[in-house]
Specification:
Number of helices: 13
CATH superfamily of the largest domain: Enolase-like C-terminal domain
Strand order of the largest sheet: 5-6-7-8-9-10-11
CATH class of the largest domain: Alpha Beta
Largest sheet: 7 strands, parallel
Number of strands: 14
Distance between the termini: 30 Å
Helix content: 25-40%
Radius of gyration: 20 Å
Shape: globular
Bound molecules: magnesium ion
Order of helices and strands: EEEHHHEEHEHEHEHEHEHHEHHEHEE
Length: 402
């Protein structure tokens, strides 16, 4: 098989209700969808969620990146699933930052669409690639279901209480509380979470890079009494050099998110003693294999990792996250698959939203195991680019259809 065309869609999906954290407030999401078409008429879909405060990307920069991408690694015939996976993985790992920008979301969209097209072409699901991805995935008994964690966004005190009560009724056993608003609100929200969700619930907090070094040390100290299992991204970008000092000064384990997007940042964070855990997100880290690589590095170094998501992921990224959660051992917490609770309409026919208690089963079927609804994709598309790939020498032609 050969990939003959890539289509890039920029889409705007409205939310049922707003979502807020210390760095953003949104009622809709702008995502990038990539479609990879093979010479045998198979289509694969992928998705990325560009956020400037995460990877430095914007929807514009992501579209530009994909339009100017060198697609020569796709120009040859792909003779087998194993070879396709080998080539895709090599491409995902060979990534360079562009100044302040790490093109994680753009590459995730493209990489997932290629993985979906590749596995569909061979009639296998992503869950079955362990056999073809030798040395990448630890073999072992796969779980029959995974349990997702709740995430409590900010808002009025009444809305936070209502959300926490819902989570309790839904029987979640772990939850993340967004902090970084003000000392009063942070302590109030965390206390409410502990009270409402009960003693046995695993509660962690995420400051989304809201604090300076002194505030972080003070606040983390004050949060200790609520028995917090980790504090995510405590420091503003300009104070990141102080992470080892913060980590030494507090008792709650430090989880990095925005400051650990790629392998270089991860290695540097590990070497400087900046973290105990990392929040791996497919869109942030540049795709399935790039994220797998990060999990492998963390596991080798004896550090922890959770699987996170971007707010506003459609069923495509939720499906990819589901496969990742089943394939990768030792994930501390799984976030994502909030589809039905957040999106007015989903792009996929299948609804990957978790069920009661946060429980979810593996997705079956070829590729990602979800089917994109063309009419919904068209409805929310605001920009579309088609890139035709020719056999060597590669000629790329990008045409703009708005
Ligand atoms: Mg975070």
């Amino acid at each position: 098989m050969r990939i003959v065309k890539i289509i890039i869609y920029r889409i705007r999906l409205p939310f049922k209700r707003p979502f807020a954290h210390a760095r953003s407030f949104r009622r809709e999401t702008e995502n990038i969808i990539s479609e990879s078409l093979t010479d045998r008429g198979v289509s694969g879909f992928g998705e990325g969620v560009p956020r400037d405060y995460v990877t430095g990307e914007t929807p514009d920069s992501a579209v530009r990146y994909l339009s100017q991408q060198n697609y020569s690694f796709l120009s040859d015939e792909i003779p087998s699933l194993e070879e396709g996976i080998r080539r895709l993985r090599a491409w995902e790992i060979d990534v360079r930052r562009q100044g302040e920008v790490f093109p994680g979301a753009a590459r995730c969209a493209l990489g997932l669409s290629l993985l979906d097209a590749l596995t569909r072409s061979y009639g296998v699901g992503i869950g079955e690639i362990a056999r073809s991805a030798e040395g990448l995935l630890q073999e072992g008994r796969r779980a029959s279901r995974v349990r997702y964690s709740a995430v409590c966004s900010g808002g009025s005190v009444a809305s936070v209480i209502a959300t926490l009560l819902k989570y309790r009724l839904y029987n979640f056993v772990s939850a993340k509380v967004k902090v970084g608003w003000s000392e009063r609100r942070d302590l109030l929200f965390t206390r409410l979470a502990r009270r409402i969700l009960g003693r046995a619930t695993d509660i962690r907090v995420d400051a989304n890079g809201a604090w300076d070094t002194r505030t972080a040390i003070t606040m983390i100290g004050k949060l200790e009494k609520y028995r917090i299992s980790s504090i995510e991204e405590p420091l503003m970008p300009r104070y990141r050099g102080d992470l080892p000092r913060v980590r030494e000064s507090v008792r709650i384990p430090i989880m990095l998110d925005e400051s650990a997007c790629d392998r270089d940042q991860l290695t540097q964070a590990i070497e400087s003693g900046s973290c105990d855990m990392v929040n791996i997100r497919l869109s942030k880290c540049g795709g399935f294999f790039a994220s797998l690589e990060m999990a492998n590095i963390l596991r080798e170094r004896g550090l922890g990792y959770q699987l996170g998501c971007q707010v506003g992921e459609s069923g495509i990224l939720s499906a990819a996250g589901r496969h990742f959660a089943f394939l990768v051992p030792g994930i501390r917490h799984v976030e994502g698959s909030y589809d039905r609770h957040l999106l007015e309409q989903n792009l996929t026919e299948e609804d990957p939203t978790f069920g009661y208690g946060g429980w979810a089963s593996p997705l079956r079927g070829p590729g990602l195991g979800v089917t994109v609804k063309r009419e919904i994709l068209d409805k929310y598309t605001v920009e579309k680019h088609e890139i035709e790939l020719r056999e060597e020498p590669v000629h790329r032609r990008a045409r703009l259809h708005v």
